[in-house]
Design brief:
Blueprint (H helix, E strand, L loop, with lengths): L6 E2 L20 E4 L4 E7 L13 H14 L2 H4 L4 E11 L8 E11 L3 E9 L5 E12 L1 H4 L17
Antiparallel strand pairs: 1-2, 2-3, 3-5, 4-7, 5-6, 6-7
Length: 161
């Protein structure tokens, strides 16, 4: 068990970031701490590295992209998805693989059809490794893709030990 006392968001089967059955994926788990943020927990593997023993920056950007995009779920649940229009990242410190890291995302500005979100990836000591700001359009899931929740196994998966 993760030790986090908060709502857990669903994961899918094959998404590179959250897909629990994607053998190359990062297997990120997402939580709602109740403070207006989304919390992501993840541990990189060798297949996610760029420089030796360091996460590839593109994988980190992908994790932040999904974390920020999921922040819209706090108000709209599964009814609205955040689809990325723009993502800006700033890399501050190397992010190691093989240890659990966290990402935090929050809505900065919400409009009728779009929103902006900010977030960061935190090292185990709490220092910021990567910062991001993104712009997202709000769409119903049916407008995003041919998405069948049963086929994609879109559900809350139990935490791994």
């Amino acid at each position: 068990m993760c030790g986090y006392n908060m709502n857990k968001q669903p994961n899918s089967r094959m998404c590179f970031i959250c897909g629990k059955q994607n053998i190359a994926g990062v297997h990120v788990s997402f939580y709602e701490p109740g403070d207006g943020t989304v919390l992501a927990r993840f541990t990189g593997q060798q297949m996610h590295q760029g420089y030796p023993d360091r996460f590839h920056g593109g994988v980190l950007a992908g994790i932040l992209d999904e974390t920020l995009g999921r922040a819209i779920r706090l108000e709209h649940g599964d009814d609205v998805w955040g689809v990325t229009i723009e993502l800006t990242t700033r890399y501050r410190k190397p992010a190691p693989i093989g240890v659990e890291l966290r990402a935090v995302g929050r809505i900065a500005i919400e409009r009728q059809r779009a929103f902006e979100a900010t977030g960061e990836i935190l090292l185990p000591d709490g220092e910021i490794a990567v910062e991001a700001r993104g712009k997202f359009i709000k769409l119903e899931s049916s407008a995003v893709a041919q998405f069948d929740p049963a086929v994609e196994e879109w559900r809350v998966w139990p935490d791994e030990e």
